[in-house]
Amino acid sequence: MRFYLTTHKRHWLRLTDKPLFLKSEHFDRAVKWDEARGPYAVDSGGFMELKDKGTWTRPPRQYVDDLRRIWEHVGPYDWAAPQDWMCEEAIIEGGWFGGQYFVGTHLSVAEHQRRTVANFLELRSLAPDLRIAPVLQGREVDDYERCVELYEKAGVDLRAEPIVGLGSVCRLQSTREGAAIVTAMAAHGFRLHGFGFKTLGLERVGHLLASADSAAWSSHARRRPALPGHTHKNCANCIDYAMRWRTRVLDSIPTWHPTPP
């Protein structure tokens, strides 16, 4: 199990050999490039893209060019997410959720799944060398099973993929529904990555995941005083806090015995 710390601080790549998870957009304006000391993966930033715009505005070819530039300057990444289409109610229906406004795509779950698979196929065709991972999307177990079928019909053997992302489970991860989705997809023999997993979700299904990422350390730090000796108001952007939080999370999961990356 590889646990990535999600951060927008790309210079952390030169500061730690622990796995990091960064959005591709965080490299868009890079002038000075930091070579990665340890493993890292790249997120496409799909949640914010669809939340704020209701569609993808970055063409697949541009995204591939961005990924290639990151690969060449920072070093080979473990994998990169495609430009997938999340299936959460907020993303599809739009409106105010949790104090945030979502534009809404106003499409169906099935259409989001179709577009997710189509984008993966296009990206894989444009850049078969860039380790772009397929991602499963849906809301319920049956939805995810249908998404698996879409990949199979397209000739993609998900069991042979180094990693298969499990999308739209971030807000379900600690629930029975979320556990059922992870369990059903793991039963296929996929090496799953859980996007945005927190402690409760990892306690339930961490043993079924090949990897997971989380940015929860930052919101956790924002609600607490800075670490002793730290001069900032809080440690929401602090690598020391992030690393301590990571250790606490891993130590709190009794059924998970991580090995060094």
TrEMBL record:
Q: What is the lineage of its organism?
A: Bacteria, Bacillati, Actinomycetota, Actinomycetes, Kitasatosporales
The record lists the organism as: Streptomyces chengmaiensis
Tell me what this protein is called. DeoxyPurine in DNA protein A domain-containing protein
Identify the residues that the record assigns to the DeoxyPurine in DNA protein A domain, covering every copy.
2-257
Family matches, as InterPro entries: DpdA
Q: Which domain of life is it from?
A: Bacteria
